[in-house]
Amino acid sequence: MLKVLRDLLRYNREFLFGTLLIGIIIALVIASFFSPYDELTTYAVIPDMPPGGEYWLGTNSRGQDMFWQLAASMRNTLMFGLVVAIISRVIAIVVGLVSGYVGGKTDQIIMAFNDTLGALPNIPILLLLVFVMRDQMTWGVLALTAAMLGWTHDSRLIRSVALSLRTREFTRHAAFSGMRTGQVLFREHLPYVMPIVFFTTMNNLIWAIGLEVTLSILGFSDINRPTIGGMIYWANAHSAMVAGIWWWIAVPMLAVVILFLGLFLLAMSVNEYIDPRSRLARMGA
Amino acid sequence: MNGYLNYVAKRFGQFVFVVVTGVTLSFLIAHFSPVDPVEQTVSLLTNFGATDPRTVEVLRQSLRELYGTDGSLLSQYFLFWGRVLTGDFGPSLSAFPTPVMTIIGRALPWTIGLLTLATLISWVIGNFLGAIAGYFRNSRAIKLVGLFVMALQPIPTYITGLTLLIVFGFLWPILPISGGAQLNLTPAASWAYISSVIQYGTLPALTLVLVGMGGWFVSMRSLVSNIVTDDYVVYAELAGVPSRTVFSQYVARNAMLPQVTGLALSLGNVFGGAVIVEFIFNYPGIGKLMIAGIYAGDYSLVLGVTTFSVIAVATAVFLIDILYPLIDPRVKLG
Amino acid sequence: MTLAMTNERSVAQAADVLTIKDLKAYYINDLFGVRREVRAVDDISLTVRRNEIYGIAGESSSGKTSLIKTIAGAIRPPMRVVGGEVRFDFGGKHIDVYAEPGKMKAARWQNLSYIMQGSMSVLNPVRRIKHAFNNFAFRHMGLDRTAFRARVESHLQRLGLDPNVLEAFPHQLSGGMRQRVTIALATVCEPEFIIADEPTTALDVLVQQDVLGLIKEVQERLGSSVVFVTHDMSVHAAITDRLAIMYAGRLAEEGPTQAMFDTPQHPYTAHLIASLPRIGDTATRKSLAGKPPSLANPPTGCRFHPRCPIAIDRCSREVPDMLPSAIGGRVACFRAGEVSVK
Q1: Does domain B106-295 have CATH number 1.10.3720.10?
Q2: pLDDT digits (tens, 9 = 90+) for C93-131
């Protein structure tokens, strides 16, 4: 694993660049734990200071130091994305493996349900939920809902791999040797789908964070909890563009671009690495 | 022909299934809301100083049926379906007493126009570039274009839209950034009005195209780089068939088909993107309606738009599905 | 009998259509800083004469598909020709495949055609069969559309195919039918040279006979040369005039098919022939010990020696040259002719 990482860093420019960008993000997240300000406090510093020596990224009209706001926001936003990604991964793996392994009518029913859920437009449904929940909408509930909506595509991918594993020799061996279904899936099949799971996690993370950013910008999440989208929401609420406080908008937007580009580059290079065709070429088969 | 009817029937079954699930989900979300929407809305309305007690009663009645506060869960569910099937979501609060369906009907052409155009353009450009990138893998120029297209794709719609708005609205103000057409123009088939619609639609459409293109590009490129190793392509190349023919008739033509299915699958997401874009550019479509409804606390409108958009997206998917066999000779009908 | 006829014919038309000299084609991978070579075609020389069916046999991964791809100029990275040459002589028109790619491209389908392995999937699945004929053959024929169509239809009829197949999509035809269509497609320009790569492998036995008969018939009528590749020795026995045996990227033996089946010179040939089922024979087939060698890391000396029943010390140290054999072919073995088929 370490050797793989070293090789990727050395020979894959996308991976190197992606790692650098995500490195910046992670450094920011770590920094957030050493913030001199409480992230919820407003009017702690002089408002509307442009970026400079004292305030690296300036301060906003609410009297918050942008650098420390950004650090805390990045942490919260990433947290949201990770929670969604992990929950939806678990669902996707279980549904995909079971559906692919059991096959037949069960598979058909599960997949019909899967596709139906996938065909529903997520944003209107989430918006409706946000709307009826109002103030009781915490980020945890939102994460859970997003996770419920975000697994269908990946479970189909995992199912297609599981379907091909089902007919392989080792599955039959395992089944004949008296392993229970759960054991077969967990011990024999899971390792095979892990590369796909890894790749889809990246994409899911991108999707979930995008969702969070979007909903927060619209003001549909807990607006007091600092998030990247929340920063833009407050900037819009104070008409930062018109007022000439451009850094209030520019800083979170730049951060979003760095985050997404980094995740995307990592996902792409890892996908290239685990792609069976390029893998075969590497093994010289 | 009989086979085709069977195929359509099957797809129709799926369509119904999706609609039922979506409507049920909307009902459940609305029903298990912790706040009582009916009295809250009515009190909001009377605060606004609405006068006629008869129309207030109509609103209360429709809200009760929509959110279900009378009778058993099941009977509420059926009442809700009755509302959905007759398209009667009651009067809107924010535009009281205009019926929700009338408001949706006014917004609908804008969204349909914007979405259809933007989706088609991004599909065509993304697939075209992706196919070229997959087939001529060693061209540097194409790699560069590809990198740009792909890097745009993961960025959330809102960020891309906002960037365009800042660039073309503030830094280099050449395009209108708010609304669907110039306000002093009356809708007519006049050149002035149409050109205004096009101008106002450019930035929203461009945002959707930029955001959507990358996905098509990536999937088309990988489809094509798989297809070029397929036997029939290798065979045609061995036969010395000119590479332009191989590209258009063998590679692109085969790779295009899964992308049409992909189009149907992506419509839900595309619609979500449209909601955001309409909000950013204040575009008078369904998405802006929905967000405005949320800000105004307009329950009937929000529920109406959600239910309607679930059905509309499912209908569009169904249409693409039943047209698909006409372009793919291999589809097994029946 | 067959042997005598074959020899007579080859003497009468001694001109070679294809000449391969010291050909080397490797898969070269240079990924993540590690260079790997897979020697799929390693130092092969052979000639194919006018109007003969030349068989190439060997296990899977013996390099036979790589060899014919190299002959056809159809290799793609990571495979590369690292040495040697491939030359065609089409009635005075000489083409060096790797030095003259333009000439080669012009000759495709006109002089050189291909019947591919897995004919189930060699036709464009979303286009009607007629488009394949248009794309592949139209530009070589110098005919207008109607005359071309008439020519194609009469060609199909001569091969026992209904001209209506032109309007069909590939998936509407059976496997055997599709293979016949590809044979028609490969022969419509009446090429001098046809490469047939496992054309009967995926077909059931009856259809196989039918397709073999068709290939033989067309070959005889056109007087073309056919290079026929299959792992199935019984097919070679039925159709080829001369036969080459490949093992681990090299030639083990080459010679007149009939004579080779009677008295194989190389122990590997003997093994391949011995493993053919025979009527009335109840003895179990002996399989060779060991696995086919890795082409990335082949054994030293003779590549067959780790599995060879009669290997001696020398076999593991020296590489045997291809030398004339007792039955009028060539063989690469220090103990040539010392095993016989029982």
Answers
A1: yes
A2: 888 888 888 888 888 888 899 888 765 688 888 889 999
